[in-house]
Amino acid sequence: MWLSGCVSVGEGHAGAQPQDRGHSSADAQYYGTTEPMAADAVYFVLTDRFVNGDPGNDQRTQGGADPSRRTFDRPVPGAPKGRSDNVGYLGGDFRGLLDNAGYIRDLGFGAVWLTPIVDNPDEAFTGGDAVKWGGMFTDRGKTGYHGYWGVNFYKLDEHLPSPGLDFAGLTAGLKQHGLKAVLDIVANHGSPAYTMPVDQPKFGEIYAADGTLLADHQNLPPAQLDPAGNPLHRWYNTRPGLAQLSDINEDNPEVLEYFIGAYSQWIDQGADAFRIDTIPWMPHAFWHAFTSRIREKHPGFFMFGEAFDHDAATIAAHTLPHNAGVSVLDFPLKERMAEVFGRKGGGFERIAERLYLVDGPYQNPYELMTFYDNHDMARLDARDEGFIDAHNFLFTARGIPVIYYGSETGFERGTAEHAGNRNYYGQARIDAAARSPIYAPLKRIARLRANSPALQRGLQLNLEMAGDRAAFYRVYQHGGHAQMALVLINKGDAPTTFTERRYVQAGRWRAAVGGGEVTVAEGDALSVSVPAHGVEVFLLDAPVRRADLARELDKAQPGARSRR
């Protein structure tokens, strides 16, 4: 299905612009971002659900004899025939991740985002509403397998390390495979804290690095806490948060110092970037102080937040330097990607509306984390071809791509939390992944991005984004490096021909997907047939010399503002 040997050069046209070889654009700087992290597409693993590399840390007897409190293997009741979900631990660990670092790197990724690694309670939660098939915000019977119920943010959860392999060992091992470690962090909440029939150990508690108890909800509803009279309550807000989670008091100065200390420790052990969970639940002032302090010690440290909102203006506030000054997950674009590439269908014009390349609300749209699904929503509900189309766009358009584990094979497509979204993947599926029709096209386009500075960091200039067709430039000219990419995507069920005349610069263009080269003379058009659900990327390693292209890039450059 991939283009091969069908490149042609069209005749010149009356409206063609001269090359204007004396134009100063050859010395101009054109880039979407200089952020080093932009070079690295991110593979996101929910660590417990990836691969069980060391059964010795499974803690299968944890929780004791009481079946309501055991932590390992807790199937969600009510599953339809042939379906399953689980809210217990299933054994995924650092060893399973490191054993498959080569697989992730070979697939074309440069970073791994892993869920929180800190200590979580040692029992299943007995409060709240009972977990049920497809339920939301129901936590009775659930464990902290996901890592987001932290109780000691300085201590590793015992399900993750193995003898000789702690977090520092994991990050060192990942780096040997050319992979950065993106650590998921939480600061706005701890573990479930109230509604338990009997208070359970660790739930609603927070501990210092030395094991000293710092905070305890004491199984009391928020309104019954007494921060003024009880020091153990001062870490918590007296208003309810999400579900029964302990809601941490952003106004307590001890809180900021605690989290700066804890997360600095994990940076010292090799974390290369942070993903900030639920960033809107703490005020801008808190995150500004946190990120400023982190960057005082680690200049330029990359962070991105999760603000689950489809309004760009709302989530963009976190990217501004006077607030957190971080990147964010691009939820507004995700909403359109799920529509356009999913079974509902839609044209590329729906995506174009969410790119905000010029005069947009974001500090820099090129540093946004782009994705189509993750662990907190239904996985992409698409045919194999929909996944292929999504990857062709995701790895060529602006932003830093993030792929949720298993998407390379369409794993659990369309399933939501408590209905299969977070199911165990396992070594057998990884070993068989290359047989999926989705796998090879993803590997091809991901590895192309990994080797193209234009696709990683270049300004984006749209030529056509409508229906099943997308055509755009990515242009990078900075620090002595110059590369143009002309991206042509066809998500239709039949081949289509692109004939591009605008801004096509004379030179030898390489067809990076289909192979081969084409020499374009001054004033000529470039014409190519792109197969159904296919992509072609033409690369030209040369500075910008066309006056008309330079003018458009000059207009686009102000949209790529620095966060610093």
TrEMBL record:
InterPro entries: GH (IPR017853), GH13_cat_dom (IPR006047). Keywords: Metal-binding, Signal, Transferase. Its cofactor is Ca(2+). Residues 1-28, 53-84 are annotated as: Disordered. Signal peptide: none annotated. The keyword Nucleotide-binding does not apply. Residues 44-449 form the Glycosyl hydrolase family 13 catalytic domain. This is Cyclomaltodextrin glucanotransferase. The keyword tRNA processing does not apply. Pfam families: Alpha-amylase. GO terms for biological process: carbohydrate metabolic process. It comes from Lysobacter daejeonensis GH1-9. One of its GO terms (molecular function) is metal ion binding. PANTHER family: ALPHA-AMYLASE 1, ALPHA-AMYLASE FAMILY MEMBER. It comes from the Bacteria.
